[in-house]
Amino acid sequence: MIVNTELEYKGNLFPSKIVSYSKDVDTLYFKTDNDVVLELTVVRDSVLRFRFTTTGNFENDFSYAITKYASRGYNKLEIEEQEEVYKVTTSKLICEISKLDLRVSLFDAIDGSLINEDELGFHWEESYEFGGNIVKMSKASHDGESYFGLGDKPAKLNLKGKRFENWVTDSYAYGKNTDPIYKTIPFYTALHNKKAYGIFFDNTFRSFFDFANERRNVTSFWAQGGEMNYYFIYGPQMSDVVANYTDLTGKPHQLPPLWALGFHQCKWSYYPESKVKEITQKFRELRIPCDAIYLDIDYMDGFRCFTWNKDYFPDPKRMVKELSDDGFKTVVIIDPGIKIDMEYSVFKEALDKDYFCKRADGPYMKGKVWPGECYFPDFTNPEVREWWSGLFKELVEDIGVKGVWNDMNEPAVMEVPNKTFPNDVRHDYDGNPCSHRKAHNIYGMQMARATYQGLKKYSYPKRPFVITRAAYSGTQRYTSTWTGDNVATWEHLWIANIQAQRMAMSGFSFAGSDIGGFAEQPQGELFTRWIQLGVFHPFCRVHSSGDHGDQEPWAFDEDVTDIVRKFIELRYQLLPYLYTTFWQYVEEGIPMLKSLMLFDQEDVHTHYRNDEFIFGEKILVCPILEQNARGRRMFVPRGKWFNFWTNEIVNGGKEMWVDADIDSMPIFVKEGAIIPKYPVQQYVDEKEIDQVVLDVYYKEGKEDSLFYDDAHDGYDYIKGRYSFRTFKLTGKPNQLIIQQHKEGKFTANYQQFLVKFHGLPFKVSSIQIDNVDIPLANVKMNGDNSMIVDKDFTQLHLVGE
Ligand code: GLC
Questions:
Q1: Which residue puts its alpha carbon closest to atom 4 of ligand 1?
Q2: CATH superfamily name and code, 258-588
């Protein structure tokens, strides 16, 4: 195997001096006298693309990661030739390219400060093994510089001092620091001198990142093939870096159906039908909200995708309908391996149409997965994706399945040492034929994409729901994801917390872990603590391998059931807040979970925090990660926060002890926040909601909050049938004013808000709604400081004595 051994390696080759320069609209070409060309594209004022070739000639420019919807355009572009450098200036960045050796330095265009500079810069090594280049980039790393991102790496959030590999890998029972695992997201954000920038290395070959590990002042990245092709994304706000990366690689193509944000129950496997029914009925009987039930591989006939085991599930359509009548959406697993069986129509068809992957020397790529020997569709061929999407017709349109779960799509192959295809397997790569070395990291993504296309087509007019295990940058456009086969240990609870945060800062917010742990069996306490964390992850599903015991909310003792119910109920109450957060993610690429450095990068204390995060924009959460804990020390970021349980106000910017017995966890709400809440329901849209609660947390000063709503499914919202409310809160020592601005054509069923005030520092003596005095007696100012207000109020004004 070729691993980058060193940066001083004698075989490294370097660009020599620039001999020509040319420009084509937004793209500049710098050519050296040893045939290296740097192609520099100004994507936006704050986003530059750097692409290098060593032969004077570029390969076809094709990327699965970059979306065609990515924003382009800049306000300013000036190019100046100076004695030693070419200087490229946009409204946000100055980029200097050394005439001597192509090395790049980047500065903030406003204050001139240095943001990032090449150390050796672009260099390469020729590989005799595959006849191409190992492409490398090295950049200076400064003391105090921190690094974040890279998808699902189960290591501390701050990546400084570590080296990572990107090669999508089936990693049963991985642990802290196992690398690589399921996903390849070659994007990181760096934070230095309170300014953030990001680098997205869009290269699908096996790649590596070294964050000042090999050499203290150098950060580097390289890949075993392909081009040195990276995007430099300037902030200076870290949240803008992440949003711009998400804009480049794509936001989810549509909102998920709201039910997908409910609670999901899964196991390997629930069967036969009577077992499935027993589980779903128990949820209703115990009044534990749940929206989705999953069928793992045993629902199939001999693990053949798109078939049913008729002994276990004699009439799937009826069952799915009955589950649906009870509020349960059925989600089924579909793997990429297609059983070699001439009697099996899916196999036969793919064979006839020549859709399976082949080895370089001709034969089919054969590998063992659950069904035994399989062939694997080449999802990098658009025709194969189209065919695959069509296979969902019966499952979705006829039987009524609402979601599909793609697994083993690394692709995983059993009983072989490298756990996947050999390197020589051929792929179409959308008309850019290549070997598995290049296609491996995007195979799972293209499978999930094809599945998504099927779900989208056959779920219409409802929204699709897909979940995938493997992913490359951009997969978030099509699906949600989970973190793979974790273990029921306290360490894995820590990992789950890290991974969900890291995925969010890597542009992929719709993620969650197997709550409770997939392998082994959690104690009730661990399960409870995991649920407490899991209800704050965008994707919230219990899953377990099943051979170690049960993992339903009632599988432990009654106390566990009660606490679990309470937290799942909290998630259902917070659904409008969560949905609003999702909408901001879909609209603006804002990560749904914000690690503290993403929330407050100016405070260096946040740069090494791991456990605490902001759920949406206003709720601070910190899971309990230890056994027998009655609370924990945690860092509360700057500002004032309300303890969610007690309404006690704390001043942040420091670490503090927070009580949290087993029935509680540390949750804080930002002062000034207005949080919309639904009543508890057993599943999404079980009830006609006639009143939405607005929890108002007083602040002396101003704070804006949002509330997005629509029909919770379907596409009418795209045509303007949504409601988007902005609440502007202004608090003074004896006054509170809330102004509401409303957009969109959606009319909800509810007519009223039940406004609940928290932390009002005065006793209310008069109230005006839309400038009309309301006699106190008429507005039912309840004992608990709540009142009912028409949902379309424009201004609510409380005055104190
Ligand atoms: C893999 C998946 C797991 C699933 C199992 C059986 O291990 O990661 O979630 O239950 O396969 O399909």
A1: 268
A2: Glycosidases (3.20.20.80)
